[in-house]
Amino acid sequence: MHTPSSRPFARLAGLFLAAGLAAFGTHAFAAGEPVRIGAIFDKTGGLNIYGIQQSRALRLAVDEINAAGGVAGARVEVAEADAQSEDAKYTQYTTTLILKDKVQALFAGLTSSSREAIRPIVRRSKIPYFYSSLYEGGACDRQTFVTGATASQQLSVLVKWAIKKYGPKVYIMAPDYNFGTISAQWVRLYAKEFGGEVVGADFLPLTLTDYSPTINKIQQAKPDFVVALPVGANQTGFLEQMAAAGLKSRVGVVSTNYGGGNQQVVVSPQAGEGIVAALEYFAWLDTPRNKAFKASWEKAYGNKEPVTAVAVDVYNAVHLWAKAANKAKSAEPAKVIQAFEEGEGVAFDSPAGPVSMQPKSHHVRQNIYIGVGTKTQSFDIVETYASVAPKFEDQVCDLVAKPQTAQHFTPGASN
C-alpha cells in the first residue's frame, strides 16, 4: 500500500538469518500441540488507524477458528508484535517471531515498504506470509500470499466506470513512490483501453500540505475526473482544498484507497460527499454474511468506527490459511503452501463476498465495489463487480510452474 520502499532493513536481517534459519527448518509439532502464528501490525504510530483494526481482525478470526476446532486438530495461538509504524521494526520482529517464537505462518504489514522488508526473510524461512492490504500489484514469490486488492483489480473497473460517468479526460494525483507511480501506469493503460486520455499528472511528496499548485494545474488541464491517491493525514488535505476551490462541482474525484482507512470520517462531509472509491470491502455492504460479521465485531470491540477493508483482508487471510491447513491436515508450512497450489486452491465465504486464492499467483479473486461518499461520512454502494480476478498477477506469476520466482512485476511485464 503506502509509503516508499525501504529495502536496507531486509539486507541487514539477512546477516542474522543466514545461520539461524538454516538451523530452524520446519518446526514439527507433537499431536495436539498448539499451532503458533505470527502477527505484526502498526498498533501505534501514524498508521495505527489501520494496524489496530488489522490486529483485531486477526484475533477475531483466530477465536472463530478455535471455536470450530482449530486447525488440523490443534488450537491456534498468536505471537504478536507492534511495528510502531516503522519499517525497521518489521524486519526485527519478523526475525524474532520466526527464530524465537517458531511461528508457522506470518500475517503482517500494511505499506509496500513493510512488505518488501518482510518478503526476503520469509522466503529464507519458507513459511507462508500473508500481506493483507490494497497495493500496486505484481509481488510474486512462493512464500507470499496477498489478500488485498491489486491496482489492476481496482483500476480496471474504476477507470472504465469513471470514463462512462464523467467523460474521457483524466488527471492523476498520486504520491511520488511505487504505490503512486505504478498505480499511475495502470491508470494510463486503462484510460487508453477504455477510450480515455490522461491530460495531466502530478506526483507529490508525502509531506506536502499545500496543494494550490496541483489544484491550479487541474483547473488548467480541465479534466473530466481526477484519480486521487492521497496517502496519510497530510494528503487528505488535498480533498479539503479541492472542495474549497469549488472544483468538485465540475470535476469528478475517484480513488482506490480513499475510505480504506476510514478517511471519510476524517475529512469534512463537504469534502467527502461525492468522492468515488473502488474497494474490495465497505462496511455498508447489505448482505447477511457482512451483517453477521459486523455483529461479531461489535460484540468483541464495539462499533465506534466502521470496519475497514484492510481489517477484512486480514480476517480473510487467517481463515484462508486455516482452510489450507485443514485441507493439508497439517499446519507445517510446506504442506500449507502445497494445499494452496493444488487443484482449485482455497476459498472462503468472507464478509466482502467469496474470495479464492489463485494457486499460481497467490493473489485472491474477489469482488470489487464502487462506493460514493455521502453527507453522513459513509458510502452508498452503486456498483458491484463480482469475482474480479487478479488478471495481471495471474498472467505474469506462475509459482506452480516456476516456484523459484522472486520478483516484483510492473505493467508491461510478461512471463
Note the overall shape. globular
CATH architecture of the largest domain: 3-Layer(aba) Sandwich
**What is the typical, i.e. mean, pLDDT?**
91
Q: Domain count, please report it.
A: 2
How many whole angstroms does the radius of gyration measure?
A: 21 Å
Number of helical stretches of at least 4 residues: 15
Q: CATH topology of the largest domain, anyone? A: Rossmann fold
Largest sheet: 9 strands, mixed
Bin the helical content.
Answer: 40-55%
CATH class of the largest domain: Alpha Beta
Q: How much of the polypeptide forms β-strand, as a percent range?
A: 15-25%
Distance from first to last alpha carbon = 24 Å
Structural class: alpha/beta
CATH superfamily of the largest domain: Response regulator
Low-confidence stretches: 2-30
Keywords:
alpha/beta, 415 residues, globular, Rossmann fold, five-stranded parallel sheet, disordered N terminus, nine-stranded mixed sheet, 16 strands, 21% strand
Question: What is the element layout, followed by pairings?
Answer:
Blueprint: H1 8-24, E1 35-41, H2 48-67, E2 76-82, H3 87-99, E3 106-108, H4 112-125, E4 129-131, E5 139-141, E6 144-146, H5 151-166, E7 169-175, H6 178-193, E8 197-204, H7 212-221, E9 225-228, H8 232-235, H9 237-244, E10 252-255, H10 263-266, H11 269-272, E11 276-279, H12 288-301, H13 309-328, H14 333-341, E12 346-350, E13 353-357, E14 364-373, E15 379-388, H15 391-396, E16 406-408
Parallel strand pairs: 1-2, 1-3, 3-4, 4-6, 7-8, 7-9, 9-10, 10-11
Antiparallel strand pairs: 5-16, 11-14, 12-13, 13-14, 14-15
Helix pairs in contact: 1-3, 1-4, 2-13, 3-4, 5-6, 13-14
